[in-house]
Amino acid sequence: MDDKKKQELLDAFSEKLTNAVRLYMDGCTRCGTCIDSCHAYQSMPETRYTPVGRAQVVRRLFDRYFKLSGRIAPGMNEAVEFTDEWMQQVLDAAYSCTGCRRCMTVCPFGIDTQQIQGIAKHLVNTAGMTPVVLNMLADMSIAKAETIEDTRENFEQGVKNLEAEVIEKWKSEAGEDAIPIGAQDANVLYVALAGKHSIIPAAAVMNAAKEKWSLSYFEAVNFGAFAGNPAKTKVIARRIIDEATRLNVKEVAICECGTAYRVMKYMTGDHPFKVVSVVELFARYVKEGRIKLDKSKIEGGVTYHDPCQMARNGGIYDEPRYLLEQLTDNFVEMTPTREDNWCCGGGGGLVAMGEKDFRMKSSSVKVDQVKATGAKVLCTACENCHTQLSDLNEHYDVGVKVEFLSELLADALVSE
Amino acid sequence: MSNHDVAKTLDLKGLPCPMPVVKMSQEIGSVSVGQIIEVLTTDPGSISDFPAWAKSTGNEVLETVQGDPIKIYVKRLK
Question: Is A51 helix (H, G, I), strand (E, B) or coil?
Answer without folding.
Answer: helix
